Amino acid sequence: MSDKTPVDFWFDPLCPWAWMTSRWVLEVEKVRDIEVRWHLMSLAVLNENKLDELPEEYRELLETKAWGPVRVVIAAQQEHGPEVLGDLYTALGTRIHNRAEGPGKETVAAALKDVGLPESLLEHWDSTPYEAELRASHKEGIDKVGQDVGTPVIAVPGSDGEQIAFFGPVVTPAPQGEEAGRLWDGTLAVASVPGFYEIKRSRTKGPDFSNL
Hints:
InterPro entries: Rv2466c-like (IPR053977), Thioredoxin-like_sf (IPR036249)
Organism: Streptomyces paradoxus
CATH class: Alpha Beta
GO molecular function: isomerase activity
Strand content: 5-15%
Shape: globular
Helix content: 40-55%
Keywords: Isomerase
Number of helices: 8
CATH architecture: 3-Layer(aba) Sandwich
Pfam families: Rv2466c-like (PF22234)
Number of domains: 1
Distance between the termini: 31 Å
Number of strands: 4
Radius of gyration: 17 Å
């Protein structure tokens, strides 16, 4: 067994902010003794009961583009094991966000090919027998952190052995090297304080993928 600290990370491949955070936590793996374990969550599931409250553009995004990719990813996990998630997410995120190819079916097909997974997984695009598994994975992450958050969710062991979970951090561009490590240390420090809930400021910059 690994003696590294396990870090559970829930993502939706559609979210650019989760993508930024995922690249940061992989950088943290290089400078801190952690091991990332990937899990799937779904912005479509998260928002399915409040679509009427959302801006029209975001609602359309969730209804037309959010379901297909997560259905394919959960099928890949169920049929080929959870160990495929990290590489598949990297392939998807690189194409969707860094290359601005968008989350369409052709992009997902290319990402599957990138990591050697069968194109037949695309059969799950419009519906999947793994709906229950998708919702269970999503629920596991959300139950740890609460309903009023988005993606990503990160969970780490606390000092008492129980997991500490938090949303974010939301950061752009993704810090690298020791800067990534310092942000990790600080995030754990505030997350471990009983009763601590939130630090926030207005975003003045969009996702910056220039160093990825």
